[in-house]
TrEMBL record:
It comes from Vreelandella janggokensis. Residues 23-277 form the EAL domain. The lineage of its organism: Bacteria, Pseudomonadati, Pseudomonadota, Gammaproteobacteria, Oceanospirillales. The chain holds residues 546 to 824 of 831 of the full protein. This is EAL domain-containing protein. It comes from the Bacteria.
């Protein structure tokens, strides 16, 4: 192949240019999407040992008019890099709280816990706690129903500020889950001082669980750790009954995964719960 001055094959450089162009147009379109209602919150159920739905995690989707449904793995990283995660995150907060406000008046839904993912950059805004509290107030949300999912990377830059903000929100009734636990920077010392309610076992540690296998030490350790700290533990990515059984044996009793339900619209989730009848 012919080479450019920088020594890269021409084809390779073309591919790089295409990728850059693709990212730029996604960024432009995402900006538009946030303002024009192309985003949608899907909900994935979280169930207890009796398979009763006790809550849901909100997972954002982008219903693109031409490209179809785009998954967050594709656009969240772009949103993070460009700062669009701030308006996007605020939209998620608004929409999630609007749902909680609706559920408040529906017997059968009013006890559900709703978890929202919060990006590091979003959480680190100086007025993040005030934003959350004002949206809670705006939608008349019972704050005990709201859980915010944070990741360990928050502790890298400003642990003291993080703890302060969490405490302020916890004081108002909001709960916190530590997401993807075990995949990032884990400081056991901070785990003790963070005002957490829940640890979420990452799908990576659930995937390998099978009956009679030895591959369980990480999941076992996380569950034991959560119990010793008095935290709830939620296993994500549970796809098989074997995985559920092993988790139950290890002492984890809240599950989320395709075995119990894929992410779906709020309408689909609530009709599934309401048709199922009262617990
Ligand atoms: P996450 O928070 O770890 O969310 C769990 C992901 O696992 C979701 O992917 C969910 O659809 C998927 N999942 C659930 N059960 C199963 C299962 O049984 N098997 C398998 N293979 N996968 C399962 P999704 O919806 O594509 O979201 C990907 C990531 O995008 C999320 O990972 C989260 O980090 C981010 N994300 C999603 N929504 C938001 C949001 O509103 N705000 C922010 N900041 N990030 C979001
Ligand atoms: Ca999550
Ligand atoms: Ca997760
Ligand atoms: Ca994950």
């Amino acid at each position: 192949a012919k080479r450019q001055r920088d020594g890269k094959p021409r084809l390779f450089q073309q591919a790089q240019e295409d990728e850059l162009e693709e990212r730029l147009s996604l960024e432009r379109e995402l900006r538009h999407a946030i303002d024009h209602n192309e985003l949608c919150l899907y909900l994935q159920p979280q169930v207890d040992a009796d398979r009763q739905v006790i809550g849901a995690e909100a997972l954002v989707r982008w219903q693109h008019p031409e490209r179809g449904m785009i998954s967050p793995g594709h656009f969240i990283p772009i949103a993070e890099e460009t700062g669009l995660i701030l308006p996007l995150g605020h939209w998620v907060l608004q929409e999630g709280c609007r749902l909680l406000g609706e559920w408040r008046h529906v017997p059968g839904l009013q006890g559900l816990q709703l978890s929202l993912n919060v990006s590091v950059r979003q959480f680190q805004q100086p007025d993040f706690a005030d934003q959350v509290l004002s949206v809670i107030q705006q939608h008349d949300v019972p704050s005990e129903r709201l859980t915010l999912e944070l990741t360990e990377s928050l502790l890298l830059s400003d642990p003291e500020g993080t703890i302060k903000k969490m405490q302020q929100l916890q004081h108002e009734g909001v709960s916190f889950a530590l997401d993807d636990f075990g995949t990032g920077y884990s400081s056991l010392a901070y785990l003790k001082v963070l005002p957490l309610d829940t640890l979420k076992i990452d799908i990576a540690f659930v995937r390998d669980l099978a009956l009679g296998m030895q591959a369980t030490p990480i999941a076992a350790t996380i569950i034991a750790l959560a119990q010793s700290l008095g935290l709830r533990v939620v296993a994500e990515g549970v796809e098989t009954d074997d995985q559920r059984l092993v988790l139950a044996q290890l002492g984890c009793h809240i599950y989320q995964g395709f075995l119990f339900g894929r992410p779906c619209t709020a309408a689909a989730l609530s009709s599934a719960i309401l048709e199922d009848g009262p617990a």
